[in-house]
Amino acid sequence: MAIEKVTVYIEKKPYKVKPHQSMLQACLSLGFDVPFFCWHPAMGSVGACRQCAVKLYTSERDERGRLVMSCLWPAIEGTRISIQDPEAVAFRANVIEGLMLNHPHDCPVCDEGGECHLQDMTVMTGHDYRRTRFAKRTFHNQYLGPFLNHEMNRCIQCYRCVRFYREYAGGNDFNAFAIRNLVYFGRQQDGVLENEFAGNLVEVCPTGVFTDKTLKQHYTRKWDLTMAPSICVHCGLGCNITAGERYGMLRRILNRYNSEVNGYFLCDRGRYGYEFVNNEERVRKPLLRRAGQTGVISKDAVINHCAGLFSKDDQVIGIGSPRASLEANFALRTMVGPDHFFTGMSDDESRLISAMLKVLREGPARTPSLQDIEHSDAILILGEDVTNVAPRMALSLRQSVRQQPLQLAEKLRIPLFLDHAVRELLQDAKGPLFIATPAATRLDDVATATYRAAPEDLARLGFAIAHALDARAPHVPDLSEEVRALAERISHALRDAQHPLVVSGPSCGSEAIIQAAANVARGLCTTGHPAGLSFIMPECNSFGLSLMGGKMLNAAFQTVEEGATDSVIILENDLYRRAPAPVVDTFLNTARHVVVLDYLANRTTAKAELVLPTGTFAETDGTLINNEGRAQRSFAVFPPGENIQESWRWLRDMMVIAGRREENSWQTLDELLTAMATTLPALARALEAAPPAAFRMAGAKLPRAPQRYSGRTAILANINVSEPRPPDDPDTPLSFTMEGYPAQAPAAVTPFFWSGGWNSIQATLKYQEEVNGPLRGGDAGVRLVEPAQPNNGSYFMIVPPAFEPRTGEWLLVPLHHIFGSEELSRSAPAVLELAPQAYVALNPDDALQLGVQTGKEITVDLAGTRYRLPVKIRLELPKGVAGLPAGVPPLEGISLPGWSKLSAGQ
Amino acid sequence: MAFSKNTSRRFVEKIITKNIRPEGEPPDLKAYEKAGGYQALRKALGMDPKAITELVKASNLRGRGGAGFLTGQKWSFVPVGKDAPHPKYLVANADEMEPGTFKDRLLLEGDPHQLIEGMIIAARALEADVAYIFLRGEYTLAAQRVRRAIAESYARGYLSKNILGSGYSLEMYLHISAGRYMCGEETGLLNALEGKRANPRTKPPFPQISGLWGKPTIVQNVETLANLPHIIQNGAEWFKGLSPGQSGGSKLYGASGKVRQPGLWELPMGTPIREILEEYAGGMRDGVKFRGLLPGGASTDFLVEEHLDVRMDFDDVHKAGSRMGTGTMIILDDKTCPVGMVRNLEHFFAQESCGWCTPCWSGLPWAEQTLTAIEEGRGEAHDLEILAHITRWVAPGNTFCALAPGAAEPLQSALKYFREDFERHIKEKRCPWR
């Protein structure tokens, strides 16, 4: 339904704009420069800074008008304003003057300098002369953890930080303290900020109070960064990021707006995990290991060596990776053939992801984007600790609980853009959000109800909800009255909603949970309540790899064990995180030739005969498919080093040397993608994720470096005054330098947001069709999976039996940690600092039974290995269930859930 | 408490202070009832709630907190009837923190039952479920007395469920403020009552629609509420007839500064300033001369000699270029430095700025710094221009709430009436009064 637009007059000229927005937003959408601080496109208006004042006229005849704050004034039919009115212009300059009374003017030593919204707004308003002679106030700066610097003297009291941290992200260890011009934004005392989205303060703060602490260690101004449109690799959501590089080092990650995916915000794992790219453990040269000796060899020697290794290619198997691009996986699959291609996920994970994919393909529920999730109005989370496995989704879910209460504001005609007026009205009112997980989650504070149980029982709850929605779904026998009532309650809440949503995934390692979630979604959809079904994917390309298909990892182990093959190529994958160490040891020791392509040294590269250095996301281009089924292209921000190349190029070279002619035509990424589209029609549209390398604007490439990049021609002048040739990029329409067409490019190939007078991240506004709308020309990404039409799937009919605690044995379930569970970000020092050590979590009764308490070590026997782990008490864990941190050494390769004996003794 | 006995003067009917014995204990429930107390409540409980609002409208009762908004009109925005949201709230604003103002204190300490009765009547009209008295933290004696009075009212069935068999129920609580001038602003008060920072709220929506905990709420000054039992008992026409002016009723007027008898008097609304100053406050002390006055608390414009015949009523004082505010005057004499006085006031306002909107949190400390420099002999020629700029910059509409515009009032009028004193400070590089 199209919303009827209204006519407003700006400088006496009529404009058609959407209603139900503020005049500030309308002006910005129309492209007018109205300065602001406290307003934020995702957080609405509060009227604090008074920077966006304009003249409002009551009618055509009103010549005097009066000043109003455009952020508080609704765009209603006939509104007449002037931005250019001299009184309004003077007032706005006076506001800057007021903000500057105490601002330290330390731009040259401030990390925000050059991309500071306060600088931009100061220039925009024309304020340039300091009329005060008095001393400025000063503050104590706090230690806030490894992610953020705190420099309170720069604060202009716009309240954005505290609004984001507390009201938007749900944090409570940060606040505004004191009054007058001494308001202090920080913690009650120094300490690590607890909220998983704190890093967004870097972008939310309009000046340099909160800046990126990791950037500071290798600081570069925005104008000296080469930037590229990349996709985050630290979970399965595919948040859009801007990666910034200088001198071959990745300097920082910024959010890259995509209205459908991450909007304006990232999680801290996504923002700070990038430092693995600069890690000293990077593999930067080809390594050949013979008889225990390791030596660096040249690129050509590597290829020749491979030619010898793989002469009989029917004996070679390939193990792919859910953290490698479609292109890399496809190259390997092509090289070894589909019958010898293994996905490289653990068997359990592989099964679960295939099951999820099947459900999504059959439908009837559709996978929602993060934006859809934010607009859902009743949610069931089954088995997922969302904040710790797909963090950015948790931020969307936190907003979604406001959807139902917002109807009250609409009823009372309180404009939704008046953020505080709406919050004061709604208070703690929350829409339905039900969380069923084995342990507490960070979203519990906004949940309507939580249910803590073992995976089987979580599935049973899901099955019971589905049955309550539709009697054709299987009945769940032997359910307690309490759980039945809860299922009933949840079914009502979902049925009564406009946009119900089910969130589930593989974290509990339970196929029954996935089936239960599918049944709930089906129960809703088939009874006239179109529901979203969002499955969380563990890694950045789990979905893509699953679409491509491949065999199970254990089958690969078996092939080698049985002697059917003796050569293995492992692509960007540490097998020690996929299977128990003894199994992987046997596999790698048995295989005669092990070639590993990877960028970080790990236990698998340590066992390889040949290690080929490949590029990280920062050095290579590739397509990833996120949990929504959206194919997105990620672009390299700097060319790989001399001895490093993309995995697909290594593999192509090997194929070519082996005499395969067809792959010789893979000179560029586009050629490979075209081949993939032909071979795998399901992935054909991945080609459309971004414009091809031949794409030009005004006949030119698109520059990764900004116009103001310093010393483009002088950078190596101390070595050679001859200007070096800029690096080639045959794979993308982007150049690695500032040469190219500087105007707005299609979203997928927009390397950074920067516009005249808008040097900060707020320049995003200038790239949107309208405030909060898609980027001009449409947001990036192509959805590859839609539910089948017509839908003729059916309910899953097998309900698992209830969980039975055992004597002397515990069901160990994985507990995920945003910092620590994900492989790559563990190699980023700032993230690792916040990662937990391995532990075993028990509920107090079970701990008592074992006679242990917090911190005491106990013995855990798992998959033939014995671990000594300290105990953590988690009050909410169900009886008979214990937790282990997922992905944390030495527990990485363990497949959970699993039963284990626990004992207090040695 | 300085409370002048005005026996020597012409007879003035006392309404809201009739039970108050300044040096003694307030009337307890029994004494209050004996004096006719809670009869108005009985009457009101027999009335249709809408009829109460109509009666208050007809009485023309204007809010005594400073803004002078029509009480009945304010109530009429509260949704009533069976579709109205509940709980609804009534809040007595007893956070009297305006410098120079001490009128509500008298009512709170002197006759707490009158306030409670007025509140129950107002709550009944609004069909409110819960009432709060938001009391200034320093008013400890008032707290004791109000607490006792609430307990007595509960014991007697004037509060709680089914009041006097009427079917109407009301709970009442005393909340003692942690202390901030901003808590006296009605929406800042609501935030404080909710346990949040006392920042003001966006208006609209007004508290009548979305107030305390997002529910319909009326915030009313103590003195306003104290008038209600008398209006119910005696009718709208009687109330209007109490004063010669337009606003109707009586008003508590006060005077502080170097007058002979500083104090507080209940007089007909619209009594001329000169009469209050000369007949009730006894004129200026020997040896000092009148220079000006702030008519209704620190956040009102100075009036001077030429305004002494202005009636103390909302519209008359407004016409004279100031506001009646709380009606408690602060008098400036010729032995007191006007720059020092204004600096002291601006120190208060700067200190009490909640820190929300830029003109207020930035402008007021800047004004304070500038005034301090002038007072200490460090003034510069352009300082008066800057002070004038700040007063215009924080004009109503430019700021988020009325604090900064109020703070600008004594400053802008001092610059107008005492400009030569400011200039002397700057020229002589000292305060001539020191």
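qc> Chain B has three domains: 29-241, 253-333, 338-428.
qc> done
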